[in-house]
Amino acid sequence: MIRALLAVSLAAALLAVSLPAVEAAAADRTAAALDRDVNRLERAGESLLAADDPGARRVLTVTLPANSLVAVGVERFVVDCDPACGVRYSLRNGATRTRRLSLPLVTPDGPVRFGTPGDHRLRLGLARGDGGRVVTVRG
User: Fold this and answer.
1) Model pTM score
2) Distance between the two ends of the chain, CA-based, in angstroms?
């Protein structure tokens, strides 16, 4: 009986010690996946600018994970161009990251915001702007 109680106590202590590391790994995994999505957005915009004519389009999928043992949920993912273009996302653990994009982007319908888990589509288009060609982003 005492051995069983000792084994259960030891297992509970090991679980309590390892949970912070699991949570940190889940946050790192989610951030890495979102960073890959931002890289894909940047590459697709660069490809439009380099090789296409105005009117060309690309569609990208951004996946926001739900809260789980292996991923931290995403509270918000925003593509905005006010004042500078960038992507900002906030994880449910409180971490926020902002990445400036060097592309000439515009969000003609206002900031593109996603906040629910699942797949979300970003529609990129090539248009003429005041200073030349620009990439439009819509949700």
Assistant:
1) 0.81
2) 60
